[in-house]
Structure formats: structure tokens, C-alpha cells
Amino acid sequence: MIRTSRFEITAIEDAIKRISEHIDRDVDVYLIGGGAMIFYGRKAATKDIDTVLTSQQELEAFMKAAEKAGFAQVPEPGEEYQSIGASTIMQDATGLRLDIFHRIVCYALELTNAMKSRATTHSEHGFLRVHLIAPEDIVLFKRITERETDLEDIRVLVEGGIDWAIVEEECLSQSNSGQ
Length: 179
Known about the structure:
Elements (H helix, E strand, L loop, with lengths): L8 H12 L6 E5 L2 H6 L8 E6 L2 H13 L3 E2 L14 E4 L5 E6 L1 E2 L3 E2 L2 H6 L1 E6 L2 E5 L2 H10 L5 H10 L4 H10 L6
Parallel strand pairs: 1-9, 2-5
Antiparallel strand pairs: 1-2, 3-4, 4-5, 6-7, 8-9
Helix pairs in contact: 5-6, 5-7
């Protein structure tokens, strides 16, 4: 199933606020893809919000809150999503998708403490804190996927300025690097 819907900043902000209304414990969520790029002003719209949570408890609380906010699990997300290794993929009535990962994306790249330290806190909504992964780390996450628009996103990030030493250091620090 090919999806063509794109969602702008107001739809992303609305989804985050709706989810936050149902969270009853501290949850840190990291945006790692197009959603982060939108908040950095480097992309106008995205077809999904790629998120990473680092603890099982936070993952469960986020998924439960998303369900209460009108998101439902996508039973057959399509071929494009088969190999990304998400804990779940959820979608609301507008077609906005959440790709929700627990620590590791595409069975390859882990959200490390160094990545978390480079992330910026975008917003806080009650118990929910939304962090944006640094552009250097977005490049790494975009590079491991096989989605058609990711190369264009990498080009946009590079044109905006990337510290390649950070990219190299993070790449080499990943537990599966060199394998």
C-alpha cells in the first residue's frame, strides 16, 4: 500500500498534545526523522513520526496513550515498513502514522547516550518530554532505512551544515559497527 499523505507541523504538534493528555508518568520520546526535521525547519511535511523510547515502561505508556488519543495499530503496514523493526506502527483517523521504536531502529542503530545528550528538548506537555535528535544523528537514522525520500532528506540536512566528526564518531561507537 503506497501512502501519499503528508502532514505539516500543526498536525504533528496536535498529535503530540493529544497523546500527552493520556500520559500519567514521565516519558521521554525522541523524534528521529521527518518529524524532527520539521521542527528544525528543514522539511515542510512528513508522512509519519519516527519515535524512539528507551525504556519498556515508557514505550508501553506512550503506546497506551497514543491508543487513547485515537491511534490504532496498523496490522499490515505495507512492504516499505516490513524491515524497519518498529515495536509497533500506529495510525490515527487522519492517516498520520507513528513508527514507534524501542531503543533500536531497523535492527541496526541504537539510540545511544551520546545521541540523547546531543538531542534538544523541543517541548514538554505534562509528563511527556519531546526531544529532537541532532541533525548529525538524523543523517545516520535516515541512512539505514530504505525509504525513497531519505536520500533527499540527508541532502537537505547536509546542506544545512553537518559536523561529520560527530557522524563518524557515533557510527564507530555503535555496537554493531564493523560487522
